[in-house]
Amino acid sequence: MRNGKKFVGWHGFALYPVGPFGSSDRMSDMIQTIDWEQLDMIADGYPPDFVEIYRVFELDFPSILVKLDSALAAGDAVAASRAAHQAKGSAANFGFIEFSSGMAQIEQSAKLGALAGLAEAAKHGRQVFEQSMALVKRERGV
Fold first, then answer.
1. Which of 5, 14, 15, 83 makes a 20 to 30 Å CA pair with 101?
2. Which residues lie closer than 8 Å to 59 by C-beta, 6 or more apart?
3. Which pLDDT band holds residue 99 (cuts at 50, 70, 90)?
4. Cα(37)–Cα(95) distance, integer angstroms
5. Angstrom distance (rounded) from CA 62 to CA 87
6. For residue 121, what is the domain's CATH number?
7. 73-83 b/e with 16+ CB inside 10 Å = b?
8. What pLDDT does residue 102 have?
């Protein structure tokens, strides 16, 4: 803690101040949230089959975040690392690069057993995930 602010990494491995509500100075102007090329490549024209797979992702993905929250609440670094790894990879497939980057940070910290501050980072991650889903819906209609 420095100057009354916790330092929890989110964007890649850089650390920046996180405020009391899990928000940050949101370097979002400099960070790309979605890798549109990746999403468009995997979507391949957004046919009904892709849309169905994306809907399953949308419905099932929150359960991974619940696993992460539960592991962090229990102080289980191994389970937290696994859940963060699963979240990182699943979201990266759809081009959710800001979210995946944050999950990589959580995964690495959990592997080191450094769980302090990760619950707040996971909460912020959920917000980034929801914003990413909304952005894809707005920009690509899925």
1. 5
2. none
3. very high
4. 8
5. 9
6. 1.20.120.160
7. eeebbebbbbb
8. 96
pTM for this model (two decimals)? 0.78
In a domain, 102, yes or no: yes
Total number of domains constituting the chain = 1
Q: Is residue 80 part of a domain?
A: yes
- Across the chain, what does the average pLDDT equal? 84
C-alpha–C-alpha distance, residues 138 and 21, integer Å: 26
Rounded CA separation 15/105 (Å): 10
Residue 56 located in a structural domain: yes
Instruction: Please compute the mean of the pLDDT values over residues 86-107 and round it to a whole number.
Output: 97
Burial class of residue 103 in the structure, from the number of CB atoms within 10 Å of its CB (0-12 exposed, 13-18 middle, 19+ buried):
buried
- Banded model confidence at residue 90, pLDDT cuts 50, 70, 90: very high
In a domain, 69, yes or no: yes
d(CA 25, CA 38): 27
The structure tokens listed for 73 are 């609440």
Q: Two tokens at 45?
A: 């024209």
